[in-house]
Amino acid sequence: LKEFPRVAWLSEENVEHIPFSHTRYPEKEMIKRSQEFYELLNKRRSVRFISNEQIPMEVIDNVIKSAGTAPSGAHTEPWTFVIVKDLDVKHKIREIIEEEEEINYLKRMGRQWVTDLKKLRTNWIKEYLDTAPVLILIFKQVHGFAANGKRKVHYYNEISVSIACGILLAALQVCYPLHLAPKREVVLEGQTVALFTNFS
Amino acid sequence: LKEFPRVAWLSEENVEHIPFSHTRYPEKEMIKRSQEFYELLNKRRSVRFISNEQIPMEVIDNVIKSAGTAPSGAHTEPWTFVIVKDLDVKHKIREIIEEEEEINYLKRMGRQWVTDLKKLRTNWIKEYLDTAPVLILIFKQVHGFAANGKRKVHYYNEISVSIACGILLAALQVCYPLHLAPKREVVLEGQTVALFTNFS
């Protein structure tokens, strides 16, 4: 889990130019597409009970590739997606998160926050982290590395990663309308695991 | 622009229960849908030259409603979307942003940041804010109000709003594949205008 390749910043010369292309739909079609997309997304829920059925890895790959099309500050693309399928690793992740979440609920979050969450009936037990066939860990890269090995600032990295998460959720809902719940942070080698476990 | 209705927190009793429903696609269909969605999203660009052609308001409404399906910390839904069509208001917004952006480029951002942006050929001139037929201003609500008028904390408000923005971008790309570029902040009555003007 801890060894991420340090991808050097691509210099502009190495990137092939891809011309902008787009489809302009007739107005009626535009309205229909926007309506259908809304209706589909409006069915999404942040569920805490998740099926253990397998999901094709092509789907996970496409969903992450979709997320990677998100805009980012100065096009730094400050995200790392890690796919976890191994039962033991999933369970270790669950243990780390439950331990941190228990401290959150009992100490860090305060009485008001815990009260606000009461009606959502959430707690620090995350059984679904064992059940789900695949976990997607989402890391924000608070900095990157330039070709010379020096640290490179990633502007607006948290906002950028969150936008990518929004696209990831939309992509999942389009092809696999069932999924996880959002967000807790564990700092790991200057990056951050943004495991979605507190959102609703 | 400055008068937002202060929506009281909905108590759970007032909200009708909507059962969770979902479609499970056969694997082949799942892969196909995820692939097509990726290909569509991969065509999105953060363009700085925008058509002045009108867009049906139903489309804007559906796109914003889609964004509003995003998950949020403790389900606080800490976002406000403001649609601006009036030419004078759009122009005033452009003036405010250009003034702030010029200070950003010349003073606040520092030499490294401005250098990083050079290859993207962006600057503080945002002509497209006049040209676009519709601007969607996105505000994060750093706090809300409880029924008793007291301030209510909005946990993870920036992350929540950014996730909603990701969904908004996806929705736009699905029905109207052309759009704006991301992010600058102007504090306004305890909320924040997150006008996307610095993302790529």
Descriptive key words:
40% helix, 6 helices, homodimer, 200 residues, two-stranded antiparallel ribbon, alpha+beta, globular, four-stranded antiparallel β-sheet, disordered C terminus
The secondary structure category of chain A is alpha+beta
Percentage of residues in helical conformation of chain A = 40-55%
Q: Biggest β-sheet of chain A, characterized?
A: 4 strands, antiparallel
What's the β-strand tally of chain A? 6
Basic shape of chain A: globular
Oligomer, anyone? homodimer
What topology, given as strand order, has the largest sheet of chain A?
Answer: 1-2-6-5
Unreliable residue stretches of chain A: 1-12, 179-198
Beta-strand fraction estimate of chain A = 5-15%
pLDDT average of chain A, as an integer? 80
| H/E topology pattern of chain A | HHEHHHEEEHEE
Radius of gyration of chain A: 19 Å
What's the arrangement of secondary structure elements?
The structure is a homodimer of 200-residue chains.
Chain A: H1 27-41, H2 57-67, E1 79-84, H3 87-108, H4 110-118, H5 128-131, E2 135-141, E3 143-145, E4 151-153, H6 157-175, E5 184-188, E6 191-195
Antiparallel strand pairs in A: 1-2, 2-6, 3-4, 5-6
